[in-house]
Amino acid sequence: MLEETNRLHLLFDFYGKLLKDKQKQYFEMYYQDDLSLSEIAELQEISRQAVYEHVKRVANVMEQYESKLGLLTRYEKRRVLLDELQQELSTEGRSESHACALVGKLLALEMDID
Questions:
Q1: How far apart are CA 105 and CA 101, in angstroms?
Q2: What are the φ and ψ backbone dihedral angles of 16, each rounded to 5 degrees?
Q3: Distance between CA atoms of 71 and 63, rounded to whole angstroms?
Q4: CA–CA gap between residue 40 and residue 77 (Å, rounded)
Q5: Are the beta carbons of 14 and 75 closer than 8 angstroms?
Q6: What's the pTM?
Q7: Burial annotation 7-45 (CB, 10 A radius, 16+ → b, else e)
C-alpha cells in the first residue's frame, strides 16, 4: 500500500499539471492532506462512493499518462544509473571504463525519446 501511494505521489509530480483542477483537488485532499473519503465527501457534499470513484479515476488517468509517456519509468532508470555511477566513482580502484559506460547509458537514456 505504501509503495502504491509513493508511486502515485511520483506520478502526480510528473503528471499533476495535466490533470483538471477538480482531479488535482481530490488527489491532494486524499493523498496529500490525508483526509478520509468520508471527510472529503462531507466537504464536497457528495457521497463517499463518489469520492472513491474520483480518487480511483485520477490514479487511472495518471497511470494512462505514464503508459503513454513513460516519464516515471525513465526517471527511475536514471536514478538507478546515477546511484550506480556515484558508487562506482566513490570506490577506490574504480574502473574508469565502467564509469564511462554508465555515463554512456545515461546519455543514451536521455536521447531515447520513443
A1: 6
A2: -55, -35
A3: 11
A4: 36
A5: yes
A6: 0.78
A7: bbebbbebbeeebeeebbbbbebbbeeebebeebbeeee
Residues in the chain: 114
Helices 48-69 and 2-15 meet at what angle, rounded to 10?
70
Distance in angstroms (rounded) separating the CA atoms of residues 14 and 82:
19
**Grid cell in block for residue 48:** 463517499
Q: Which residue has the cell 488517468?
A: 61
Per-residue pLDDT of the chain (114 residues; tens, 9 = 90+): 789 999 999 999 999 999 999 999 999 999 999 999 999 999 999 999 999 999 999 999 999 999 999 999 998 988 888 888 877 777 766 667 777 777 777 777 776 654
